[in-house]
């Protein structure tokens, strides 16, 4: 949406009369009496919503919208326009709640700073921090490129078991668990390549 319409001014958008439907997580909200601005975020980025009481069905603004919380996932429909500051926005004519957030989001200005929470609650880190989302996107692109490179040269990707009946890892202390159905102890594999190396001439 941004790629297609960011370069157009408000007059061009008005002449095009573009209506869009979006859904995402409500990250910020600025309520100013009978109108509000909302920042909506999805996997593709962010878009601003302009929500006016008189443009929505009766009761939606005061009885529903004002009671929603940051982190809620909502759907919106409306027409594109540019604000006085030049930000691409959606003038909403429809608004509805899709999923309720059970816990509040971290502080919107500082994001999620606690390193322990960031690593133990990755889902929260990805919601709150754009830098973390960017890192995950880059990692995914790197892995995809590596796979394409290997496949083009005749290699085949396979899944190897992560639990084994024989411990490996040289002198490292193995992680042990018990397989109830088979009634035997199993060990966490220290490296995924060990099993594939026993297959001989196959190119894994």
Describe this structure in words.
The chain is an alpha+beta fold and 204 residues long. It has three domains: 98 residues, OB fold (Dihydrolipoamide Acetyltransferase, E2P); 36 residues; 37 residues, no CATH class. It has seven helices and eight strands; from the N terminus they run ααβββαββαααβββα. A five-stranded mixed beta barrel has the order 1-2-3-5-4. Strands 6-8-7 form a three-stranded antiparallel beta sheet, with no helix packed on it. Strand 1 and strand 2 form a beta hairpin. Helix 5 packs across helix 6. The longest helix has 23 residues. 10% of the residues are buried.
Which spans have pLDDT < 50 for at least 5 consecutive residues?
none
Give the tally of structural domains.
Answer: 3
Give the structural class: alpha+beta
Individual helix count: 7
The portion of residues forming beta strands comes to: 25-35%
CATH architecture of the largest domain: Beta Barrel
Q: What's the arrangement of strands in the largest beta sheet? A: 1-2-3-5-4
Mean of pLDDT: 87
CATH class of the largest domain: Mainly Beta
Oligomer: single chain
Please report the total strand number as a whole number. 8
Shape: elongated
Largest sheet: 5 strands, mixed, barrel
**Using only CA atoms, what is the Rg?**
25 Å
The portion of residues assigned to helices is: 25-40%
Distance between the termini: 41 Å
Listing every helix as H and every strand as E from the N terminus to the C terminus, the arrangement reads: HHEEEHEEHHHEEEH
